Each structure stands twice: as C-alpha cells, then as structure tokens.
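Example 3.2
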Amino acid sequence: MASKKTPEINSSSTADIAFLLLCYFLMTSTMGEDSGLQRRLPPMPNENQEVQDQKINRRNIIVVKINSQDRLLAGSDAIDVSLLKDRIKDFLTNPTDDPNLPEKEVKDIEGFGAYPVSKGVISLQNDRGTSYQAYIAVQNELVKAINELRDDFCKRYYGKVYTQLTEDQQKIAREAIPQNISEAEPKDVSKR
C-alpha cells in the first residue's frame, strides 16, 4: 500500500501577518507614562559669574524633617502629616505679620502690578531610613498647600481656579505664590 502524503499548509505569509498584527497593536495601544515630582530647578549660572553666599534670614525658612520612623517635625513642633498643609499655608501667608514668620517683599509682577510676595522657603530634610510612602505624603502636602494658596489668589483676582486661567495668568500666580522648596540630601542619622 502506498503512503499518502498529507498536504502542507503554506506558511510563507504567516510572518507577514504576525508583523502586521504587531504593528497594529503597537500603534493602537497606549504606553503608560512615568510621572514623578515636578520640580523646577534654578537656571544654570553663567560660567563667568562669581559665587556668592546667599544669606537667608532665619525667619524665612521652615525646616520640615522626616526621621527614619516616619515622624514629622515642622519647625520645632512634631506634627501629623495631615496638619502639615495648614502649617505651611500659615507660614507662607503670615496673616498676622508675626516677626517669627517670613517677611514679604513687594514685587512688581509684569501684567499684574505690585504684590507682596512671601520670602518663605520650605527646607525638606529626610533620613535615609524614611519610607517612600511618608516621603511622598509630605511632598503631596507641601505641593497641596502651595496649590491651595495659588487657587485662593486666582479666585480673589480672577474669579477662577489656577487650572482654568490662561498661561499668562498662571505665570502671574506662580510669581505671586512661588514654590520655594529646598531639598537636602538624605542623611543617615542612625549611624551616629
């Protein structure tokens, strides 16, 4: 008896079909975007510029520390993270002109006019043992405080929140309520 040969499937176009399917899925699917902490770095100094020590008045700085047990210290007080936003807002606005809180400097903002801008700086310091969750929670509260201050400014002068303003109006709000956060390199205090 003669053996029957089974017919073969022509697979020459299989690679082409697989390539087309791959291209289709690459073009129609979305890739996840990495998001991080948005920070604006100071501009690079001119190479010929002399280095000068900038003296900042002690009253214009609030030191926010997170230790390795995720405990928070704002200024000289141990506080809960949920209270940090209000503490920072009070610090930056200095509503009672307290001599221990930051001073204000009247600046002429282009397109707006003269406005008293806080000289307050938030100095964030953390331990190497600080958990990522605590660090991000503190960062979120700091940014939330500044965003709320900007929204208050925008509502008072433009009748809208910051995100609904034009780019020029947002620039004015950023100059009136600057985000001055200074982050120190993490320290390992447990080895001392």
